[in-house]
Design a protein that fits this description.
2 domains, two-stranded antiparallel ribbon, alpha+beta, about 240 residues, about 25% strand, six-stranded mixed sheet, globular, Ribosomal Protein S8, Chain: A, domain 1, 10 strands
């Protein structure tokens, strides 16, 4: 069997055919119980991320966002665009004289570029190797901004540069973690934001920056106060 405790208090338990099934059942029960009495916070899996990469000795920053409404599926007869194209004589396949165009929709990506700057002089994007001063200024700029999006450093940074970025991220109070294998290693840096601040920014101030980044479900006893946040979250 499996049991779940929160702060040494029993919440739920289950005994199924095997340990894996018992854990899954206990987790499901515990989640249902906790969501009745506690606030639930979930990061939006399609939130904006600041992508930073090196290209031709330049540091390039941009915001990447993937639209969830566009699926990686080919158009079918239920799609309005499909119907309009059929009325115009399209018979299927790629567009162009040789049908060389792609048949599946392009996933829409929005980007814009900006440079993290020094208060006195521009930090600049001309860089061949990141040094300690550059990494420190980059992380200070991130700390002092009101931006809550993660920084994603692409595999174009060397192992030594990632180590420096890790060091200064920790120094200025950020979270940092790496993932990926060998030449595809990436570094993610994010701000440490307490749950009380997230709840206040969304429920009280309706801060769109936070509302784009997090989903919230209030406990049942708060449904009447925050009806817009009563939809059940699957965590």
């Amino acid at each position: 069997g499996a049991e779940i405790y929160v702060n040494n208090v029993f919440v739920a338990g289950a005994c199924e055919d095997n340990l894996k099934a018992s854990k899954a059942s206990a987790f499901k029960q515990a989640l249902e119980i906790l969501q009745k009495h506690c606030y639930s916070i979930k990061q939006n899996p399609y939130r904006d991320t600041i992508k930073i990469e090196k290209s031709n000795n330049q540091l390039i920053c941009g915001i990447v966002k993937t639209q969830t409404s566009i699926d990686d599926k080919k158009l079918d007869a239920s799609n309005k665009g499909y119907k309009m194209m059929k009325m115009m004589g399209w018979s299927g396949g790629g567009l162009g004289s040789q049908q060389q165009g792609r048949e599946d929709p392009v996933r829409q990506v929005f980007t814009y570029f900006y440079l993290l700057k020094n208060d006195r002089t521009g930090l600049g994007n001309e860089v061949s190797n990141l040094d300690r001063n550059y990494c420190g200024q980059l992380m200070r700029n991130y700390r002092d901004s009101d931006d809550i999006r993660e920084l994603q450093f692409e595999p174009t940074f060397t192992k030594e540069e990632r180590a420096l970025l890790h060091e200064f991220a920790q120094r200025y109070g950020h979270r940092s973690s790496s993932y990926g294998q060998h030449g595809m290693r990436r570094l993610i840096v994010s701000k440490k934001i307490c749950t009380d601040a997230i709840l206040q920014e969304i429920l009280i101030y309706k801060n769109t920056r936070y509302m784009d980044h997090y989903f919230i479900q209030v406990p049942e006893t708060k449904y009447n106060l925050f009806p817009d946040f009563s939809n059940k979250l699957s965590l």
